[in-house]
């Protein structure tokens, strides 16, 4: 019982921490910067063009008159996640960790 | 340290790592969603497929990726080796050389006028008897013109025999008679109607008693200013008796080349040695720059030559003295040995 209670407490404390960190990320503008960085890198490596070509296939398949956002999201997002190059992923993670190391000590 | 520090804002390292991954995943999803919205809007607005046309046109403008050809399929230097016919001279010229050729051919453009001016200037130089050195300098000033033409011009101007500065080498531009002192080691040519070497001592004496006899550096002519009957006068040759005649001859032979510098000292010493009395009688002796003092008549400039040979005693001193300055420039070229020989002769 104690363990469960402790877990809950820890979890809430942990989630509190996470929420705090996320808030800090946004407030300091770091999240926006990270977002722009990622977007630029994805265009640079051709990820966006790849995915756009895939979109065309999906649209032709579904009939482009009736395609919905949900359709696209459902088709594109998993492929998009998989197509991100490793170098881009590593660089982004590095930056996030750096931020966390700097600002997690409240 | 990080692993142990559990109190790091309540999150240990693994949790931080998980947090980082979560943040990353959120960012990627944002990117994907952004793309979806963009595409969906493009489809609904109708501009998503605008960059595509019918299949035939697509094939026509496909990107070309062959060697030697650009992305449109065009060859880079296709016209480089073609030949064009010049409308002016009707010659077949290579395409890459066509524009410069036209420039020269039509006589337009910046270089053409310069080259033409050069040619005119150099042809003027060749035709003149005595040219100015400045013309050659102007020609040589155009450093940046076509190399071949510049070299051609330079060679021409280098060979120009009329420049007065060439007087150091054997030049016979005066053209009267061949030079007398070809064997002269000091490179001074003495051209005149009369060659001192060929004259006998008697002839020399008679010549020099009547005329000045100073050889001009520039014109290589002997100064023909008549000597005055005054013994104490300007004519220095009065003091020349037979023994001096011998000395004179030997000195003349040697002095084919000498410049005034030893003669300057010679003159001063000569005057002291031989005729002290003549010294005060010399007009304008101290004025070195005045050629007219002694040989002013036929051409003061002509007497500015080496007069060492003609002036034995102090009589020559003034003329030498006055002539000292112009020929002093040649001073460094003359080695010392001549100087003692004068004194030997005099003594």
UniProtKB/TrEMBL annotation, chain A:
<dbReference type="GO" id="GO:0006406">
    <property type="term" value="P:mRNA export from nucleus"/>
</dbReference>
<comment type="function">
    <text>Involved in mRNA export coupled transcription activation by association with both the TREX-2 and the SAGA complexes. The transcription regulatory histone acetylation (HAT) complex SAGA is a multiprotein complex that activates transcription by remodeling chromatin and mediating histone acetylation and deubiquitination. Within the SAGA complex, participates in a subcomplex that specifically deubiquitinates histones. The SAGA complex is recruited to specific gene promoters by activators, where it is required for transcription.</text>
</comment>
<dbReference type="InterPro" id="IPR038212">
    <property type="entry name" value="TF_EnY2_sf"/>
</dbReference>
<dbReference type="GO" id="GO:0005643">
    <property type="term" value="C:nuclear pore"/>
</dbReference>
<keyword id="KW-0804">Transcription</keyword>
<dbReference type="GO" id="GO:0006325">
    <property type="term" value="P:chromatin organization"/>
</dbReference>
<dbReference type="GO" id="GO:0000124">
    <property type="term" value="C:SAGA complex"/>
</dbReference>
<keyword id="KW-0509">mRNA transport</keyword>
<keyword id="KW-0805">Transcription regulation</keyword>
<dbReference type="InterPro" id="IPR018783">
    <property type="entry name" value="TF_ENY2"/>
</dbReference>
<dbReference type="GO" id="GO:0003713">
    <property type="term" value="F:transcription coactivator activity"/>
</dbReference>
<comment type="subunit">
    <text>Component of the nuclear pore complex (NPC)-associated TREX-2 complex (transcription and export complex 2). Component of the SAGA transcription coactivator-HAT complex. Within the SAGA complex, participates to a subcomplex of SAGA called the DUB module (deubiquitination module).</text>
</comment>
<keyword id="KW-0539">Nucleus</keyword>
<dbReference type="GO" id="GO:0005654">
    <property type="term" value="C:nucleoplasm"/>
</dbReference>
<keyword id="KW-0010">Activator</keyword>
<comment type="similarity">
    <text>Belongs to the ENY2 family.</text>
</comment>
<dbReference type="GO" id="GO:0071819">
    <property type="term" value="C:DUBm complex"/>
</dbReference>
<keyword id="KW-0813">Transport</keyword>
<keyword id="KW-0811">Translocation</keyword>
<dbReference type="GO" id="GO:0015031">
    <property type="term" value="P:protein transport"/>
</dbReference>
<protein>
    <recommendedName>
        <fullName>Transcription and mRNA export factor ENY2</fullName>
    </recommendedName>
</protein>
<keyword id="KW-0653">Protein transport</keyword>
From TrEMBL, chain B:
<keyword id="KW-0479">Metal-binding</keyword>
<keyword id="KW-0010">Activator</keyword>
<feature type="region of interest" description="Disordered">
    <location>
        <begin position="223"/>
        <end position="347"/>
    </location>
</feature>
<dbReference type="GO" id="GO:0071819">
    <property type="term" value="C:DUBm complex"/>
</dbReference>
<keyword id="KW-0863">Zinc-finger</keyword>
<dbReference type="InterPro" id="IPR051078">
    <property type="entry name" value="SGF11"/>
</dbReference>
<dbReference type="InterPro" id="IPR013246">
    <property type="entry name" value="SAGA_su_Sgf11"/>
</dbReference>
<feature type="compositionally biased region" description="Low complexity">
    <location>
        <begin position="116"/>
        <end position="125"/>
    </location>
</feature>
<dbReference type="GO" id="GO:0003713">
    <property type="term" value="F:transcription coactivator activity"/>
</dbReference>
<feature type="zinc finger region" description="SGF11-type">
    <location>
        <begin position="84"/>
        <end position="105"/>
    </location>
</feature>
<dbReference type="GO" id="GO:0000124">
    <property type="term" value="C:SAGA complex"/>
</dbReference>
<keyword id="KW-0862">Zinc</keyword>
<comment type="subunit">
    <text>Component of some SAGA transcription coactivator-HAT complexes. Within the SAGA complex, participates to a subcomplex of SAGA called the DUB module (deubiquitination module).</text>
</comment>
<comment type="function">
    <text>Component of the transcription regulatory histone acetylation (HAT) complex SAGA, a multiprotein complex that activates transcription by remodeling chromatin and mediating histone acetylation and deubiquitination. Within the SAGA complex, participates in a subcomplex that specifically deubiquitinates histone H2B. The SAGA complex is recruited to specific gene promoters by activators, where it is required for transcription.</text>
</comment>
<feature type="compositionally biased region" description="Acidic residues">
    <location>
        <begin position="132"/>
        <end position="141"/>
    </location>
</feature>
<dbReference type="GO" id="GO:0006357">
    <property type="term" value="P:regulation of transcription by RNA polymerase II"/>
</dbReference>
<comment type="similarity">
    <text>Belongs to the SGF11 family.</text>
</comment>
<keyword id="KW-0805">Transcription regulation</keyword>
<feature type="compositionally biased region" description="Basic residues">
    <location>
        <begin position="165"/>
        <end position="174"/>
    </location>
</feature>
<feature type="region of interest" description="Disordered">
    <location>
        <begin position="116"/>
        <end position="187"/>
    </location>
</feature>
<keyword id="KW-0156">Chromatin regulator</keyword>
<feature type="compositionally biased region" description="Gly residues">
    <location>
        <begin position="309"/>
        <end position="319"/>
    </location>
</feature>
């Amino acid at each position: 019982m104690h363990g469960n209670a402790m877990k809950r407490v820890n979890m809430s404390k942990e989630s509190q921490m996470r929420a705090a960190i996320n808030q800090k990320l946004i407030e300091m503008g770091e999240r926006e910067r990270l977002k722009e960085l990622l977007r630029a890198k994805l265009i640079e490596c051709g990820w966006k063009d790849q995915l756009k070509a895939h979109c065309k296939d999906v649209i032709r398949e579904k009939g482009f008159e009736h395609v919905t956002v949900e359709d696209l999201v459902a088709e594109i997002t998993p492929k998009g996640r998989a197509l991100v190059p490793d170098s881009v992923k590593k660089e982004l993670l590095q930056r996030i960790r750096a931020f966390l190391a700097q600002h997690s000590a409240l | 340290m990080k692993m142990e520090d559990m109190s790091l804002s309540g999150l240990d390292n693994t949790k931080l790592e998980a947090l980082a991954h979560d943040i990353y995943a959120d960012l990627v999803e944002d990117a994907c969603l952004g793309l979806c919205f963009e595409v969906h809007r493009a489809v609904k607005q109708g501009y998503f497929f605008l960059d595509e046309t019918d299949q035939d046109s697509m094939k026509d403008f496909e990107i070309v990726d062959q060697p030697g050809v650009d992305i449109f399929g065009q060859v880079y230097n296709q016209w480089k080796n073609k030949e064009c016919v010049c409308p002016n001279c009707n010659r077949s010229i290579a395409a890459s050389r066509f524009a410069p050729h036209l420039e020269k051919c039509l006589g337009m453009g910046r270089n053409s006028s310069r080259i033409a001016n050069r040619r005119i200037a150099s042809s003027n130089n060749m035709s003149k008897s005595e040219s100015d050195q400045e013309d050659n300098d102007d020609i040589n000033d155009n450093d940046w013109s076509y190399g071949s033409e510049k070299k051609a011009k330079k060679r021409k101007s280098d060979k120009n025999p009329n420049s007065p500065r060439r007087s150091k080498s054997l030049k016979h531009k005066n053209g009267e008679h061949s030079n007398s002192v070809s064997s002269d080691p000091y490179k001074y040519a003495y051209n005149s109607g009369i060659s001192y070497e060929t004259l006998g001592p008697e002839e020399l004496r008679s010549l020099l008693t009547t005329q000045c006899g100073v050889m001009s550096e520039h014109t290589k002519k002997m100064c023909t200013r008549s000597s005055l009957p005054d013994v104490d006068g300007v004519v220095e040759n009065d003091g020349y008796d037979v023994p001096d005649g011998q000395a004179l001859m030997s000195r003349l032979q040697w002095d084919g080349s000498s410049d005034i510098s030893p003669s300057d000292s010679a003159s001063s010493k000569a005057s002291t040695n031989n005729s002290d009395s003549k010294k005060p009688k010399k007009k304008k002796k101290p004025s070195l720059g005045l050629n007219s003092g002694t040989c002013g008549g036929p051409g003061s400039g002509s007497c500015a030559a080496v007069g060492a040979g003609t002036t034995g005693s102090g009589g020559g001193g003034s003329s030498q003295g006055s002539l000292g300055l112009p020929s002093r420039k040649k001073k460094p070229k003359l080695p010392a040995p001549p100087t003692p020989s004068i004194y030997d002769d005099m003594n």
